[in-house]
Amino acid sequence: MSATDTATPATTTAVAPVGTINVFDPHPLNWLFITWNTMEEPIRTDPDGYIVMALAESAQWRDELTLEVKVREGARFQDGVACTAHSIKQNFDEVQRWAAPHPPGTYLNFHPEAECVVEDELTCVFKLPEPDGLILGKFRGFHIASPAFWREYGFGYQRIGTGEGHW
Amino acid sequence: MGIQRVRPDFVATNVITGDDRTDRVVLEANTDHNTPRVAQLQKVVFVNDVTPEQALDAVCDQDGVLDIVTEVSPADAQRVESSQYAKLVTIEANRVLLGIFNTYPDRPLADRRVREAFNLAVDRDRIVDEALAGYARPLGALTPPWSGGGSGAEPRARDAAAAKALLDEAGWSEGRAVTIATPAPFEGIAAMIAADVQDALGIGAEVIVVGDDEIVPGSLTLIEKKLTPPWDILIHAWFDLSSDLPPAVMHREFFGDDGAFRAGPPDAEFNRRFGALVKMTSAEEAQTAAGEIDRYCYDESKALFLCAPNALYAVNREVEFTAYKTTFELAEAQVSAQHWSRRNGG
Q1: A30-160 has CATH 3.20.20.70 classification
Q2: Which residue of A has its CA nearest to B57?
Q3: Facing residue for A19 by CB, picked from B41, B46, B147
């Protein structure tokens, strides 16, 4: 399966934002909506709910056990640090340390024996012990944070040695 | 955290037991972001120290206090539409409202004919029109028509005679009432279902409203599956964060081996179908398999399928907001030059 036919955001020059709005959102997933408005993942969804590329420029199966992900060139975190294939791997390795990294449930986990291998600055491959046809959907919850985040916060690892129960 | 299984695989679902929010959460635009999805607003302030009622008053009756209020009840839609300051934004969202059937072996709803009888007894069009003011789409199974992997299963029309015939064929213990548990917000809908069941099937129906202090223990009972739930039907709402492949979330959660909301023994046929789906790396094959899973759930009347409720927002008239089927996205939101935050050159 190829996901390269989904819309890929082009690099562009930002228009200066204007205005302030005040929002009341009692939804129990408010914490997740804020996450999605402040972080990026390899993919996101369009207004109709269909997967489109975000930090990933493409995601392509090389074979049933190997998914190649190309990272969008020029992507960078809020602190200006470049987001590369190494960032994807760092975040993957951090998430794999958790028993339950996703509040909705462990069904969103990657296979515990899956690996992320960096091939070059913008290419990483996910090597899986068995086919995972749902992995693109799992990427929606695969928040990519900067090295500074993991160094200073890291969902509890730096403060208490575990991320379980801290999002 | 509800631990469903530890061996051979660790399986768990987190349960929200509290919601401690700071009074304000402020998001500021990242002007260095280099895709077309760059924020149009300079600042978004989440206001958490008001009640839903106060929030609705503020967005409808005042300018410059609240600009977007989410999760507006259909009962309040007309008020928003007639407001001087707010407009109503709605979208057919990836949400479902259904009745979970307790299908443990000692329960009458373990019989497919009984489950189908309940699906034929209920008038879901009336529920949508009267309880949800039309802001919902009746569903035949779990996949809404706009999502991928649909089965085309049409909502069952109410047929009281066919429902009674099925129940008579399956049998129902004389004098036994069906128990319908519901969170307080759906009490009215549960009452409509109870009335339909009593009318069509000629059996008693008792509505049990689950108190706020019972939600977490009840959720753990359902998720952990160590105890049989005390109800026959639980009115339940859920959501999907993608439109691509609903069984990956919805069908799995309600009927799958690791499904948090499965209220009965594992369904080997469902698990076989879902197990094949998760190994499909071809999108086309997965869509076909997903449709067949939805059809299987329809044929087996795996739940009391009701409807897909809309998401409703009250939005200040000077704010341009794009509603998503899945999430609450603000990157595209904009304000006009007449908006309160810009009138003074802000």
Answers
A1: no
A2: A24
A3: B41
